[in-house]
Amino acid sequence: MKTSCKIFFSVLLSGLLFAGPAGSTSMSSSLLARFQHELVSHAALHHQPLQLTAAAILARSVSGMPSVLRYSTLLHRAQERAFAGPAVTWAALGDCGDRQNLSDCINIAALQHLEQQAPDNAAIWLLAFDHASQADDLAGQEHFLHRAADATVFRTYYATLLQALIRTVAAQLMPPDVVHSISGRQGNAPAAIYLLAAGNLMYLPTPALAPPFAFCTEHSQLRGVCLRLAKNLIRGDTVTARAAGLALTQRLTDNPAQRQWAARQQRALAWRTQQFSGLVLRARHDVRIAQILLGLARQGDTENNIQQALLRKMNRALNPPGNWNPDGLSKN
Fold first, then answer.
1. How confident is the model at residue 10 (pLDDT cuts 50, 70, 90)?
2. What end-to-end distance do the CA atoms of the chain give, in Å?
């Protein structure tokens, strides 16, 4: 699966957030941690589930928080509130207590709750597939693959959670030194707000899509099931999901026209992601681009839609020129 552009964008965000100018990494991290502490303290005074969830996500990357402001505590408060929906429970997937390595954890209680809250969401069943895969449970993998294929959406609640994070970050005036620590010496506040919100969101658990891709290619009798799953992924709320769905379709379909369509769409997606990543880089020093980007993210739209909307507003083509390929090399 060609997800290199998505990986590049993730590295871009994490690099911008957690590595300041040469020789100033420690100071930048300290400034950022102090500001996030203030954001969490302010948001924790509220009682809305999504505000508390945003506070929890921001608290997750800050060490030394008092117990009342820790990730687990704030999530527990959010989940206890009335109308706490699946987006809140999704954030709780990363609640793994005091584990040092949070990148590969899944809170099983939260996953089981999601299965009840949103049984029509393929992303939830692919998380269950991951768990079964790690346990070498072949029957479980096939069962959860069927459930994911029978669902009608693939949703990581990206739009809802990013919107909540941006509202929380923007609620407090960001000091200039924090702006510069995030978006550079010539940086601007709208870019810094977006980068801080998106950068924290990317570390929440999401389904690993390589294992079901491999499972589908190894079990030819499940081709029809896997093609239904691919349709859900293509319509999913993240760039990675769409890329995986297109790759799975191209690999499994026996329809030449559909295979060609999937290949064209993969190429277009790689182009859009590359163009979008470049605009995010420029946004750090171009307040007009930053304001447009932040405005789109505030609307609560999916990652794919934000990407396309920004390209349109900046008069960028949604499809690549004929001499472009995903490696950035021109054809001879």
1. low
2. 25
CB-CB contact of 89 with 117 (8 Å): yes
Q: Which amino acid is at 233?
A: L
pLDDT at residue 105 in the model? 76
**CA proximity to 123, closest of 101, 90, 155:** 155
Residue 328 has pLDDT above 60, yes or no: no
- Name the H helices within 93-157: 108-117, 122-134, 138-150
**Residue 164 near residue 298 (C-beta atoms within 8 A):** no
Task: Report the C-alpha dihedral over residues 183, 14, 304, 313, rounded to 10 degrees.
Answer: 10
CA distance 124 to 116: 10
Phi then psi dihedrals of residue 99, to 5 deg: -60, 135
Beta bridge partners of 121: 153
| 146-184: burial string, b at 16+ Cβ within 10 Å, e else | bbbbebeebbbbbbbbbbbbbbbbbebebeeebbbbbbb
Backbone angles phi, psi at 223, to 5 degrees: -55, -45
Residue type, 34: R
The residue type at 319: N
- Determine how many CB atoms are found less than 10 A away from the CB of residue 227: 20
**Other beta carbons less than 10 A from residue 236's beta carbon:** 26
**Residue ranges of the alpha helices (H) in the chain?**
4-18, 25-43, 49-60, 71-80, 86-92, 108-117, 122-134, 138-150, 158-170, 176-183, 189-201, 210-218, 223-234, 239-252, 256-283, 287-298, 303-313
pTM: 0.89
DSSP 35-94: HHHHHHHHHTT---HHHHHHHHHHHHT-TT--GGGSHHHHHHHHHHSTT--HHHHHHHTT
- The amino acid at residue 312 is R
